Amino acid sequence: MTQRWTQPGDLGVTRLLWTFAVLSLVFLGALSIAPAKSYLSEWREAQGRYNALAASSGRAGIEPAIQQVWKPRLGVVDRCTSCHLGMSAAGPASGEALFEAHPPVPHDPQDFGCTLCHGGQGRATKRDAAHGLAKHWDEPLLERRHFEAGCGACHTHLRVPSRRLEARGEDLFRRYDCVACHRSEGVGRGSGPDLSSAGMRGFAADWHAAHLTRRELGEKEWVASYGPIPPEDLAAIDEYLRSRVGARRLMEAKALAHRLGCRGCHKVNGVGGDDGPDLTRMGRRSAADLEFSGVSGERTLPNWLLQHFFDPGRVVPGSQMPDLGLSAAQAELLTLYMLSLRAPEVPQAFWPDDRVRALRLGQRELATDGESLFGAFCAGCHGERGEGRRYGTLNVAFPAIGNADFLAVASDDFLRKTIARGRPGRRMPAWGLKDGGLTAREIDAIVLYLRSLAPGTPIADLPAPAGGSAEHGKPLFERSCAGCHGQKGEGREAPALANPEFQAAATDAYIAATVLRGRAGTSMRHFGKPMLGFAALDPAEVADIVAHVRTLGRSGGAESTPKE
Amino acid sequence: MPRLPAALTKNRVFRSVVRHGFPNSNRNRSLAVFTNFFLHIHPVKVRLRAIAFRRTFYLGGLSAAAFFILTVTGILLMFYYRPSVPEAYEDMKDLEFVVSAGVFLRNLHRWAAHTMVALVFLHMVRVFFAGAYRPPREFNWVIGVVLFLLTLLLSFTGYLLPWDQLAYWAITVGTNMVKAVPSIGDDLRFLLLGGNAIGEAALLRFYVLHCVVLPLALIVLIAMHIWRVRKDGGVYLPPEEGAGGGEPGPESGEEAGEVRRE
Amino acid sequence: MSDENGSSSRSFIMVPGDDARREPVRLLVVQPGDMRPPVAAANEPVVMTFPHLLLRELIALLALSLFLVVVSLAFDAPLEEVANPEKTPNPAKAPWYFLGLQELLHYYPPLVAGVLLPGLVVLSLVVIPYFDLNLERAPLWGRRSPGKLAATWAAAAALTAVFIFTAAHPVWPILVPLWLVACVVSVPGLLGTRSGPVGWIARRSLAFWIFLWFLLVAVTLTAIGIFFRGPGWSFVLPWRDGLFY
What would the pLDDT profile of A320-359 be if each residue is shown by its tens digit? Predict the structure, then answer.
């Protein structure tokens, strides 16, 4: 080797120079690939097609550039319009779906950008990344069929109407022929304001009076078409109008969730039971964090939710959530509702009315009549009409609180106390103001609704048992009651009698009456009459049992209470 | 000589920049080094053995080259980057989506950083196994060890800047180790992060360390490092394999001391 | 363009006896014409820095740049979700060059793994040149040296004991390289020869072996940290469970 180098002459410099020259060229070539790659972008190609379409229809094209909607206060930088040019200032071009205009929605898309409602990655300028299909991007685009879930990005507290009132309002809306002048959700023929999103935009509370005034002014068509409406009908129509927010399916979905009683176990925005996971951010859950081993099909949040609704235990092993026996359409609706729970971080200045009302003025996001409240918070466990429930996967049966026998012996005070304080340690949460957040008036409304499930007033003065002996009661209890209520009254499939809140809420008379009468239609049979080979208990025996039940409370049948 | 090159070179301005003639004679080749900055790094002539690729694999030079590439790409990146909390990550996204060749720029910086860590490590290993750390180069070896640590710190501080999950948790793991330093661990970590947890203050500190403090320290030490190599006679060559049949003699034969004794 | 040296010195090489000198080269004066340098000539071939070395350096820089450009075109730097203190990834890994340390944390409390051991390594790296006895002149191994052999194995055994009794788990990544090095070191002492590869081993200094051990440990720990650690820092096989990095 050395020999060659020591020879006089060129000594490899020519070779070095050639190496240098070739490497330089290769290097420059490789270096120029990067800017070329960033020039040949998808958006530039799309804008080329747009310009070709525009030219063929004789319109001016656009200068190739990245378009964006920039809303600094909302943290929105959306470059979607770089390709979706029909929604940019350039205007739609026919011929390609990509260049269509935005369908009419309550808001101007330019006001809030795209990603706030639709999800996806606004800053991205490549298709997959922008649609959020990229790895390490948590918020994929909401599918077209779920677009209404995007409303949840701001409208966190869309008000669920009273079902009955709303249905009546809708009926009246047709019968008073409001659609003669107005349009609502595609129905109607007049030139009056479209009321499809009246609930979101708000409407004058005195609209009826204002209409009458117009009529009295004597305009011809008004005289012919308009007349006074009685106040109770007005209330129903108002309820109907308030629930027209321009997102019909979402409202339907939310109403369903609040009829099935999801919030009996789940908190949303701080309101609800705490038996199940908090759902406030459910719509923003990253598919990457979810377990898909029990889910067939694509690994997306909507698919996970849908399959979860059909079989919670399969998707989330050990889930306490009952299989609700939902229809496919219901599961789809609930999925939509879940997706709309987006826990937005928009600044207060952008809060919509519904959110301000709920979070600043303390108004409920649902009608506060007893039926609506019961649907939202109680129906999940106790059944839509308080018929009680026993879910397949759970070994606990939920009491039938709409049962006539129960309502006959339960005093209002008992019901109120039970709702407000719950049954600590059991699945019944406390719903009082400090816990579940229901006001005394709301609890009263629920009690009233319960009463309406089995008309008839409670028996005013139940005979209170007297002189019972706990000692005698013990064997009786163990023979007749312990099978369902547990040896120490800790509760098995039947309620826990040792529970301190039960002990506090239930009077002796209530317990005695329940034992004697039973609950028709449930496992609790009446012990006052002989049945299926069991001898009837006489009042003295019942008194003994009551006395024994009282000792259960003191000796702490519940594991949490220490024995005395 | 054709007229145009002559017109370009035979004037005062050109002569003020290039002080030597066309390097086609050994004199001018000497002057090319001698009258230029290169003299700080190389002598006019080097031994043939020292420039063989397989002796050093040019690892030291390549480390410096990686640092040069990192400086250039790093400065370019600084134009697009704001070290504050939502912005840092957003700037990463903008770099990816709207800056021309922005991804490429970031890739270049990132991969060059990893490459530099590897190169510096390999350089250190090579130098050790060549025995080049021995007197009189022992202090330069120490400088080299410090340079290695600085390289690690530079890479580590840069790791946080994208403000993504990878960055956040890698730095969390890394800085949690600092807590283990006896008695001052917690304070040290507080000093490093500007708080008890990684937040905007930590981002700013890491940014300043990454873009100002550590590079300056590295530049100063690299200059010392190279200067010392130069003064100690260039790349260390073991004495016994002298190609010119030199006597095995004391190994300091090619060390600077010899020259100073002249 | 004038050329004072004429055509006789067009070559880039300075052969002994020409104007090359014994290393290190320090060009103090450039002398005109055929004046001879005043000092003795070097006894090995030297070349002009320009163009031989500078061109090579330029090519090396270019090659590195080209390599990085190609890598950057082919692979995108990772960018994950925005930092979220509430979402801990599992496993949370440090940058790759710190994974050796993180792996060490698996065996030792943070004080030892994060401060003491790396501190000692850095300290010994700093100190090594000052304590180097240059054993290449007087090799570590004489002809047969049972005494040194015993000392080597005793030291290895002592270190093994220290590492085993202080660690939470068996520190294989430290112990295996230790015994590997100890075995290789003892070969000349066992065989007594000083020629060929065995002689090469015999001529290495103690510092060489210590450094080799450090190097093997660092590489092993880092490789385990990168490739073989998964959720909860459990041992995983990358070809079976995938790469957690």
Answer: 888 888 899 999 999 999 999 998 888 888 898 889 988 8
Q: Which fold has domain A163-246?
A: Cytochrome Bc1 Complex; Chain D, domain 2 (1.10.760)
Smallest CA–CA distance from B91 into chain A, residue: A123
Hey, are the CB atoms on B92 and C215 less than 8 Å from each other?
A: no
| Interchain proximity A124–B97, CB inside 8 Å | yes
Q: Give dist(CA A484, CA A400) in Å, integer.
A: 15
Q: Which CATH superfamily is domain A370-453 in?
A: Cytochrome c-like domain (1.10.760.10)
Cα distance between residue C160 and residue B132, in whole Å: 30
Domain that holds residue C231: 96-241
Distances in Å between the Cα of A557 and the Cα atoms of A169, A396, A399, A490, A551 are 51, 17, 19, 5, 9
Does the distance separating the beta carbons of C23 and B141 come in below 8 Å? no
C134 and C205 share a domain? Answer: yes
In a domain, C84, yes or no: no
Q: Are A424 and A499 in contact (CB under 8 A)?
A: yes
B residues 88-107 closer than 8 Å to A (CB)? 90, 93-94, 96-98, 100-104
Q: What is the ipTM of this complex?
A: 0.87
Give yes or no: residues C121 and C224 share one domain.
yes
| Nearest neighbour of A20 by CB, restricted to C47, C59, C72 | C59
Please state which CATH number belongs to domain A470-555: 1.10.760.10
- pLDDT tens, chain C, 245 aa long: 344 444 444 445 544 444 444 444 455 555 554 444 333 345 678 888 888 899 999 999 999 999 999 999 999 999 999 999 988 888 888 899 999 999 998 899 888 888 899 999 999 899 888 875 544 445 566 556 677 788 888 999 999 999 888 888 888 999 999 999 999 888 877 776 777 888 888 878 788 888 899 999 999 999 999 999 999 899 999 988 888 87
**Are C9 and B198 in contact (CB < 8 Å)?**
no
Task: Let me know if domain A249-359 sits in CATH 1.10.760.10.
Answer: yes
The C-alpha atoms of residue A378 and residue A386 are separated, in whole angstroms, by 8
Q: Does the beta-carbon distance from B243 to A2 stay under 8 Å?
A: yes
- DSSP string for residues in chain C: ---TT-GGG-SSEE-TTTT--SSSP----PPPTTPPPSSPPPSS-EEEIIIIIHHHHHHHHHHHHHHHHHHHHHSPPP--SBP-TT---SS----GGGHHHHHHHTTS-HIIIIIIHHHHHHHHHHHHHHH---TTTS-S--SS-HHHHHHHHHHHHHHHHHHHHH-SS--HHHHHHHHHHHHHHHHHHHH---SHHHHHHHHS-HHHHHHHHHHHHHHHHHHHHHHSB-GGG-B--HHHH----
Residues of B in contact with A5 (CB under 8 A): 48
Tell me how many domains chain C contains: 2
| Rounded Cα–Cα distance for residues A556 and A346 (Å) | 49
Q: C47 in a domain, yes or no?
A: yes
Q: CA angle, corner A216, sides to A215 and A221, nearest 5?
A: 30
Evaluate whether the domain defined by B52-233 bears CATH number 1.20.810.10: yes
Same domain as C122, residue C60: no
